Amino acid sequence: MNNTLELLHLAAASAHNAYAPYSRFAVGAAILSSNGNFYSGCNVENISYPVGTCAEAGAISAMINGGDKTISEILIYAESSTLITPCGACRQRIAEFSQPNTLVHLANPDGIIQSLTIKELLPHSFKEF
Ligand code: THU
Question: What is the pTM of this model?
Answer without folding.
Answer: 0.96
